[in-house]
Design a protein that fits this description.
The protein has one domain (2-157). The chain is built from 2 helices and 11 strands. The chain has helices spanning 133-147, 152-157, and strands at 2-6, 13-20, 23-31, 36-40, 45-53, 59-63, 69-76, 81-86, 89-96, 100-104, 111-116. Strand 10 (100-104) and strand 11 (111-116) form a beta hairpin. The longest helix has 15 residues, at 133-147. It is globular and about 35 Å long.
């Protein structure tokens, strides 16, 4: 898998495609101004909000389109590692060789996914400090959403019901 940057006419929107074997699996559009990410696949289209929390705003919160928190992201940019919690599950990630985003549960030698990031940014080389926390959140949210889709029962659990 790899993330590919797609040029957008707007300076405030960054568009990336998650491709595998030449096929586009997922498209994310990150709105810098509104701090939102739209994720689209053939079957689904979702909107997520990205916020900050923590004493120094060092943690990122992910909320669905209803404002319900679905995950958190902690980033150690110095070491290029971090943790993402999604729907009660915890995953680790790291940047390896300056160009690969690796997501794993317990051991980096048994990853869930390895994504090539060389074509993701609009600049030529990947550094842990080149992406904002929000962009990391977009990439990780997209990969987790693609790899670990919610079951129909889990999806209905997060849809608010109307109160009469």
């Amino acid at each position: 898998m790899k993330w590919v940057y797609v040029n957008q006419p707007s300076a405030y929107i960054r568009k990336y495609e998650l491709t595998e074997d030449g096929n586009t699996k997922l498209v994310i559009k990150f709105n810098l101004d509104q701090q939102t990410v739209r994720i689209s696949s053939e079957e689904n289209h979702r909107l997520f909000f990205i916020g900050k929390t923590g004493l120094w705003h060092n943690k990122t919160i992910l909320k669905n389109e209803y404002g319900v928190e679905i995950g958190r992201l902690a980033i150690d940019k110095v070491h290029g590692t971090g943790i993402i919690e999604m729907e009660g599950k915890r995953y680790n990630y790291t940047i390896q060789n300056g160009s690969e985003l690796v997501i794993f549960e317990n051991s980096v030698s048994a990853p869930f996914a390895v994504c090539d990031m060389t074509e993701a940014p609009s600049f030529t080389s990947l550094s842990a400090t080149k992406y904002s926390n929000e962009e990391y959140a977009c990439f990780l949210l997209g990969i987790c959403w693609y790899l670990f889709p919610l079951t129909p029962a889990e999806q209905t659990e997060y849809i608010p019901t109307t109160i009469a």
